[in-house]
């Protein structure tokens, strides 16, 4: 049985302030829920809206389709909804490449970037405090389960960069060509905001400004931050 | 002055069937409209909703904010709306790399891919007939003006691939590592559908199956088609 309070909690978790307050987030869809269960992230509650789905998840609570619609952030709820505990961030290692984001704001971009970290084996993603929250439903949907395998830390990016001994690379429109760089085996790659790039404060700390050369005439203004991240992580790992 | 019929035409152009029927498409925003004007794509009509904006565009018709809201596809119309003629496709060259899409369905992905073609100097983008239409407002918004600089052709992809003499590369999950390939100076890169990849019919025509190696353990299921395209075009051009 599901109580009114349980439903209310899930509805509240659509808002960032309640996610932060309770240290909880919501994931929808059988596949995504399974990936999180496998990853060892702690489950608080699991809701399904048919007896058939309940058979796949021993721990599930059966709710009406109306309740599911109320709790879901999707326009077409898929009938499986899990409430998970935000994992406590692990201490960030300095033994490999780290990706850092300076005020990335678009949920789809962050979701794609988390998926890229997973693909390219980047274990630590450092986000400035004003980067979009990674437990935002739109981010979670775009990560395709990769959220379970990347350690994401929100922090004061300036303070973080000031204390690290890793070499710092930042993506700038007029940086040196990434093709001409000899990249070390570990370092930090910093990517900036969609509209403004890397902020002045953060830019001042970066040791190497890099860029992706445009081919032929200069026409396109810039690359989207997620596609630029894809190309730079590929250059780092190739 | 703007007539009821002119407004009705623009409203109708929100639908693909009318865009196809009239050979017209709509672009919103001063920047995007200017890029299209510069590109030589033919303008049919231009609407603005303030006297001030009218000063920037000699050819503009002034409409009320209510009319602009009616015509716009945006939740917050930005007050500049141009109706352009779909350019007739130029014959596709075989002197450089060509990108071909097999049933890419997401407007954001197609928009990002068009922007990537512009960045990497890919002049020809061949789309299978079931690829999302490039004059869809969501695609246009995501291209950031690059639509004006890439020649996009919708065609029977199978027939196109059967008649070309260019070597054909296709992105597959289990293809050969792109890092180990010696890529020619010209060819066709085929990218597949978001959920199903390259179809069987098209796959049968491809001479080289390629893939982007995952780093470390295999965890992430796949890369988004736009980010995979970013990485592969970068590999081709670097």
TrEMBL record, chains A, B:
The keyword Methyltransferase applies. Signal peptide: none annotated. CDD domains: SpoU-like_RNA-MTase. Keywords: Methyltransferase, Transferase. GO terms for biological process: methylation; RNA processing. InterPro entries: Alpha/beta_knot_MTases, MRM3-like_sub_bind, Ribosomal_eL30-like_sf, rRNA_Methyltransferase, SpoU_MeTrfase, SpoU_subst-bd, tRNA_m1G_MTases_N. Residues 26-90 form the RNA 2-O ribose methyltransferase substrate binding domain. It holds the Pfam family SpoU_methylase. It comes from the Bacteria. GO terms for cellular component: cytoplasm. GO terms for molecular function: RNA binding; RNA methyltransferase activity. Belongs to the class IV-like SAM-binding methyltransferase superfamily. RNA methyltransferase TrmH family. This is RNA methyltransferase.
